[in-house]
Amino acid sequence: MKLQLTFTKKQGREPAIAKVVLATGALINVEKAYIESLSGEVLIDVPDADADKVCNKFRELGVDYKKLVDSVVRDESECVECGACISICPQEVFYFDDDWNLHLHAEKCVLCGKCTLSCPQRALKVRA
Ligand code: SF4
Ligand code: SF4
């Protein structure tokens, strides 16, 4: 499961992710980090089996988090199944089945936004 963490400037100085790893034993993978002078956002991947205890620990530490579910959505009425999104996505979110129908592993999305720019039909939306 992907979690989007939001840190204030003060929280950003605390090793919150390291504390959660130590407390839960969960293998957390940092996939994206965006740090500004007053706040920051970090996108992490957490094994599904550890998601509840990791969320509880972040809550305990006062770190805001949001579970990312269906982060990328496709308007099937607009999609022409050209495959451009398959080529551009770094996470292999999109794939064709044996009948050349497009499908999504939306849970793999890291919100980079590349697919929305590459889609000739503007059929994709990314929501954080
Ligand atoms: S790039 Fe757009 S139109 Fe092409 S397969 Fe992907 S979602 Fe469909
Ligand atoms: S936003 Fe990035 S990671 Fe997510 S589906 Fe689009 S290209 Fe892939």
Give a verbal description of the structure:
With 128 residues, the protein is of the alpha+beta class. Helix content is 26%, strand content 30%. It has two domains: 67 residues, 2-Layer Sandwich (Alpha-Beta Plaits); 55 residues, Alpha-Beta Plaits (2-Layer Sandwich). The strands form three sheets. The protein has a four-stranded antiparallel beta sheet. The chain has a two-stranded antiparallel ribbon with strand order 5-8. The protein has a two-stranded antiparallel sheet with strand order 6-7. It is elongated, with a radius of gyration of 17 Å. The mean pLDDT is 92. The structure holds iron/sulfur cluster (2 copies). One iron/sulfur cluster (SF4) binds next to helix 5.
Give the gist of this structure.
The chain is an alpha+beta fold and 128 residues long. It is built from five helices and eight strands.
Topology:
Blueprint: E1 2-8, H1 9-12, H2 16-24, E2 29-35, E3 39-45, H3 51-60, E4 64-68, E5 72-74, H4 84-88, E6 94-96, E7 102-104, H5 114-118, E8 124-126
Antiparallel strand pairs: 1-3, 1-4, 2-3, 5-8, 6-7
Helix pairs in contact: 2-3
Bound molecules: iron/sulfur cluster (2 copies).
